[in-house]
Amino acid sequence: MIYVSNYNSPVGQIGMASDGESLIGLWIEGQKHFCKFDKSDFIFKDLPILKETKNWLNIYFSGKCPDWTPKLLLKNISAFRESVCKVMQNIPFGKTITYGEIAKQIECKTGKKVSAQAVGGAVGHNPISIIIPCHRVVGANGNLTGYAGGIDKKVMLLENEGVNMSGFFVPFTKRG
Question: What does residue 95 show for φ and ψ, rounded to 5 degrees?
Fold first, then answer.
């Protein structure tokens, strides 16, 4: 079974999923690649891990960096996507990194050539948004490219963390 709950945030409703012990999904409503689990297995229940996640989100959306991370479990993803998620988990609150920098980190660990485009595909399929901070990944030269939740949400999350947005190219977005 997959246990689910919702959280109302400044960037919209967030859906959360748990296997009963770990957080296995966190998505902004309407984002691309939203929830890849069989919804017939869903049970709406506020388990302790989901309550802990809501507490984490409360702290995060107050503009502070939570000093812990809920227990996470990456399910049904490739080893490459998992390696990208591990790099993203190490991006500090209020900081950004490029797709190319992530590729270089993975190349250093594996000795295999990795393209920034491949990293972009993995980042875009991050199953635990915000907590695994894919919004902190930017394009070369400060381009705020691709965010499954929408560029407007990416901007809001970075602003929430106090990131100076003056050096970024932000494509036109509807903000409201």
Answer: -120, 160
